[in-house]
Amino acid sequence: MITIQKYVRAQSLEEAWTLNQKRQNRVLGGMLWLRLGKGSVGTAIDLCDLGLDTIEENEDAFFIGAMVTLRDLELHPGLNAYTQGAVRNAVKDIVGVQFRNMATVGGSIWGRFGFSDVLTVFLGLDTYVELYKGGIIPLETFASMKKDNDILVRLIVKKAPARIVYTAMRIQRTDFPVVTCAVSQVGGEYRVSVGARPARAMVIRDEEGLLSGGITPESAGAFAEAVVEKAPTEGNVRGSAAYRSHLIKVLTQRAALELGGI
To answer: Of 99, 131, 164, 208, which has fewest CB within 10 angstroms of its CB?
Structure first.
């Protein structure tokens, strides 16, 4: 367990960013994973006074503050209508309601955890992150970056014409996922985001146009085969690399068929 020497409720993003430049300081987020770590935190930086706990929506995009909870995502009618329930499906099995009432979007995305359902589902959409100093960049770019000392302000989900299906395999409900998978069509482009490989989620596009002629059992199967070839897997206590590759194929095909209404 960590020990905290000093606690500060930042009153501006500039104050939070300045404090976060010291190696021993940490932004708290929901503090659900941070508290399980070891060592000493010099200054714990709380963003709760910065108004980052809301989901705003206009005609073009959703703006999801870093301090929005996973429970807020689960219950937001507009976001779930736009994603056909995929966001709700992605978070509903994360531990329990009490946990989701505290876990934050910022903590989930910033951590870039290999097991993250949240990262996987948002990679399936036209999503961007807004960093205090780094500006607005695609989530796909952010997911592959090394961690630094910037501050994640919000997620931006642009309302491109999109359809998405989210699915995951767990050994038991509320456990960490063995594999996560989101198949989507965004602006006419088919893609799949695959996580818990057990590495960070990655995006694989239908560059061969396997689904361009429509989703059928045959084209979904071919697409799933192509995805498996491009998604490296490893083994851990939840499953071997071969088992994960098998699951990626099965989940991708199932999600593609559901996306096609089959």
So the answer is: 208
pTM over 0.90: yes
The CA–CA distances, whole Å, from 207 to 51, 74, 191, 229, 251 equal 40, 32, 9, 13, 19
Note whether 90 and 111 are same-domain residues. Answer: yes
Strand order in the sheet with 127-131: 55-57, 61-65, 152-158, 127-131, 135-138
- Asked if residue 198 has a cis previous peptide bond (ω within 30° of 0), the answer is yes
Q: Based on the structure, what is the number of domains in the chain?
A: 3
Residue 135, domain extent: 55-158
Are 172 and 126 within one domain? no
78-127 pLDDT, tens per residue?
999 999 999 999 999 999 999 999 999 999 999 999 899 999 999 999 99
237 & 149 share domain: no
pLDDT for 115-136, tens place per residue?
Answer: 999 999 999 999 999 999 999 9
- Say which DSSP state 35 is in: G
Sorted by sequence, the CB contacts under 8 Å of residue 225 that are 6+ apart come out as 249
Radius of gyration of the chain (CA): 19
Q: Which residues on neighbouring strands pair with residue 191, listed in sequence order?
A: 184, 205
